[in-house]
Amino acid sequence: MAIKIENRLFQIETEHTSYQMKVDKYGVLTHLWYGAKTECSMDYLLDYPDVGFSGNIYEAENQRTYSLNTLPQEYSTSGVGDFRIPAITVTHDDGSRALDLRYSGHKISRGKYNIDGLPAVYATEEEAETLEIVMEDTATNIEVILMYGVLPKKDIITRSTVIINNGTTPITINKAHSLCLDLPEGNWQSIHFHGRHAMERQMERCELIHGIEEFSSSRGTSSHQQNPTILLCEKECTETSGFCVGAALMYSGGFQTQIEKDQLKQVRVVMGINPETFSWKLNASERFNTPEVILSCSMEGTAKLSQQFHKIIRHNVCRGKYQLSQRPILINNWEATYFDFDEKKILDIAKEASKIGIDMFVLDDGWFGKRDSDNSGLGDWYVNENKIKGGLATLISKINDLGMKFGIWFEPEMVSEDSNLYREHPEWAIKIPGRNPMRSRYQLVLDMSNPEVIEYLYNSISDILKNNNIEYVKWDMNRSISDWYSTCLPSSRQGEQPHRYILGLYELLERLITDFPHILFEGCSGGGGRFDAGMLYYSPQIWCSDNTDAHERTFIQYGTSFFYPISTVGSHVSAVPNHQTGRITSLDTRGIVAMAGSFGYELDLSTLTEEEKETMKEQVKKYRQYQLLIHNGDYYRLTNPHNSRIAAWQWNDNTNGNVLVQGVVFRAVANMVRDKIKLMGVDALAKYKLKGTGEIYSGMALMTGGILIPRTTGDDAAFELFFEKLANDEEK
Ligand code: GLA
């Protein structure tokens, strides 16, 4: 049993971690511990200081030391004496805003709970358990159920919250976070991932300040600018040692992560839907489900934590035919042609691709409606026969005849004002009556909270998918959302639209992946602007960034790897000079960097030299050979590219112990000894043979002394080292 309850102490035990809460004599649910397995109750660590201006609950009478403001809380509320950040805030019908949640019951069940209409970690009955703790505000009969899913073998705990109005009058939920986690007083640092279009998930590690810090998105999407993941670690924590805890929100809309270091240096993290673009009217007997947070911690540094997240997302979030199987190596025509193509051009590229051994051709933006530039056509999901003469089916059969699969691009959530769809249904675009809406990339956003919009999109997309041999869909979303207003919601419910938009999106995706189970879906939002665990429930890979420059990609992929499995990272070799940065890197370097993901190409192959095409054939062969190791292996970040001359990463094959190291030396220097890198997580006592030289090293030597990386010349030079783990009798 992973969940144990004794004397109102709740203990959730995973293989290496323990999570503890306790209901105290007043019914307050205090948070005691998240960390190593201690085999004892951690309530002895609770302190009850008499801190000025920290009030006391009424029942505590004249005990000045009992304060909600100093005790660690499991799910913080506002208005009743905890002045730190609340996880939930509501407004009652009488206008008051207090919520005093006290324990009223619990339930344990086998298996993992699901959340209606929202993505959630799934698991077999044997693999997981569920704990529900029921909390109640007795003055109003508002019930809050704290849900915990436990996957003990994977060291994962999930959390989400259900809010039920058992009262007689409506309430408004202003904030309903999925996670509240109190950490004890200490030297905590935070690691978060900020960025911008074409430079997503830049890792930043910071000291906490006294006060509240926020990482959030109010853009209607999880966004390029901040990612809905957060890591808290001890100051001394490294990749391979020290304590850290991570949380990933399974949600693709606006989110908020807040961290507060309080007056006593205690830390609280809350995470969930961004209240700035959210409010929800909950009538009597209605319930509201928050999205889920995936939680994990490691006593052995951030590499282990990342591996735990990689495993849970790859095995218990991603789904479908391609979840664990080899992904097709694809060629995408976007950077090769942009909007300027016809059937002949596409076939020219496809022919070259088939000779190289590429598995699939992906036709990007521009194949539909009147779409010759980015200012028209979105919404008209039928083929543009001026460009694709003879229609899609003919083109696809020619591509299939080359031995290749075919994939296609959609941007379903958008509409161009210059489109038949907009002319017919202007009311389907999100805009506020009496105001001009913000345009972005000349486009408007469809109201995904409107069931008619979902129906239209389902029908038009499934028509194309039914009538053509399409085996891949790139699902794009190319702007941030503003001007929230829905023609199908009353004024009292307008604040619900951003969340209802995401529910509509998830419903549409669920219908399509159910009806077309053979199709590989790849998520995209101007590259990686909606790279989150929510989207990964519907698409096992996401285009990581519109930045295909191999040098900059090492930074983007470094940040992405903290939470997301390598198999989820769509990564392509593109042309030089690079279209985003103008930088020239070798084909070898572009190949090595793109291999740390789900691999493909995105350039005009018909303009390449024979020698370049030969190199690509070798890359395709190599990726096929290493793909399962890259996708299933234990991943290690060997350097931090933000403060190193080198970006290097490693996979350990957990079936045979072999090790693959790849990387890029950013700057060439004259007259220097070579750099060394230290391997991680190999077997200290085993021997490893380096491919190419045949030299043999001990695991201990590789981890402590490291290995000299091959001599490279020129900037951004790639290297690769493959070590075969020797069986005992081969070592002599
Ligand atoms: C976005 C995507 C690109 C490409 C273009 C097409 O920017 O990230 O890969 O599909 O849209 O318009």
Automatic annotation (TrEMBL):
> SUPFAM superfamilies under this entry?
(Trans)glycosidases
Q: Which residues form the Glycosyl hydrolase family 36 N-terminal domain?
A: 28-283
In the record, what terms sit under GO molecular function? Answer: alpha-galactosidase activity
The biological processes this protein is annotated with in GO are:
carbohydrate catabolic process
Database matches in InterPro entries: Aldolase_TIM, Alpga-gal_N_sf, Alpha-glycosidase_related, GH, Glyco_hydro_27/36_CS, Glyco_hydro_36, Glyco_hydro_36_C, Glyco_hydro_36_N
What positions does the domain Glycosyl hydrolase family 36 C-terminal occupy? 647-718
User: Could you say which EC number(s) this protein's record lists?
Assistant: 3.2.1.22
Q: Which protein family is named in the record?
A: Belongs to the glycosyl hydrolase.
> PANTHER family from the xrefs?
ALPHA-GALACTOSIDASE C-RELATED, GLYCOSIDASE FAMILY 31
Identification of the protein by name: Alpha-galactosidase
| Native organism | Clostridium lentum
Lineage, top ranks = Bacteria, Bacillati, Bacillota, Clostridia, Eubacteriales
